[in-house]
Design goal:
Radius of gyration: 17 Å
CATH superfamily of the largest domain: HAD superfamily/HAD-like
Strand order of the largest sheet: 3-2-1-4-5-6
Shape: globular
Structural class: alpha/beta
Number of domains: 2
Distance between the termini: 10 Å
Number of helices: 10
CATH topology of the largest domain: Rossmann fold
CATH architecture of the largest domain: 3-Layer(aba) Sandwich
Number of strands: 6
CATH class of the largest domain: Alpha Beta
Order of helices and strands: EHHHHHHEHEHEHEEH
Helix content: 40-55%
Strand content: 5-15%
């Protein structure tokens, strides 16, 4: 069998982004829409959420309907002067990742500068062979299969070699349709045919190796 490749989402998979980071990003995006589309706060927040629900990412709606420059948007909405205080690190995360056989890749809808900063703060940046971000997918975020295909070409791998570890069920659906094994990081009681294994957090990965490898 060819080498296993672990593909990890970043936010809410390798770390908890809900507590501090996602609220900060939401506020930054709303402020961006206020400034660049001349909207009040309520209208900007409603539009942000509308595009996120419709396209899977606010940026996609802004690009399609307003010609927003994606690099400009991502840079200005992902500024974190206090990022070191916002990233919540599991002390044993590095040890857990080292127990997983095969290569490891991060595949995130976040921008490159943010993803690398978070991985460095988590002290696991050196464990990954590649970090695939929004820029590498031509700003076509998961669950669009385009990014998955680019990742596999970059790594010269096949879907059957891959294990996708992710908190978002729609993204896992795309991975499963391509032929990847899937691990859902969630505390939900929901079940889905696109999920091979469900765990509450990534710290449980070594305990389910015999069910996924």
């Amino acid at each position: 069998m060819k080498e296993r490749v672990w593909i990890f989402d970043l936010d809410n998979t390798l770390h908890d982004a809900n507590s501090h980071i996602f609220p900060h990003i939401s506020r930054s995006m709303t402020a961006y829409l206020q400034e660049h589309l001349q909207l009040d706060e309520m209208a900007a927040n409603d539009l942000r959420m509308h595009y996120w629900r419709r396209y899977g990412a606010t940026l996609r709606g802004l690009m399609r309907h307003h010609g927003t420059d994606p690099a400009h948007f991502l840079w200005h909405t992902h500024q974190f002067p206090l990022l070191g205080q916002m990233v919540l690190r599991q002390p044993r995360l590095r040890h857990v990742l080292k127990l997983l056989p095969g290569r490891k890749v991060v595949f995130s809808n976040a921008p490159q500068h943010y993803a690398h900063a978070v991985l460095k703060l988590l002290r696991i940046n050196h464990l990954f062979d590649d970090v695939m971000t929004m820029e590498h997918t031509r700003y076509r975020p998961k669950p669009d299969s385009f990014g998955f295909m680019r990742l596999m070409r970059r790594q010269r791998i096949r879907p059957t070699q891959c294990v996708m570890v992710e908190d978002n069920l729609e993204n896992l659906q795309s991975a499963k349709c391509l032929g990847m094994r899937t691990v859902w990081v969630s505390s939900s009681n929901k079940k889905s045919p696109c999920v091979d294994v469900k765990i509450c957090d990534v710290m449980a990965l070594p305990r389910i190796l015999d069910r996924i490898v």
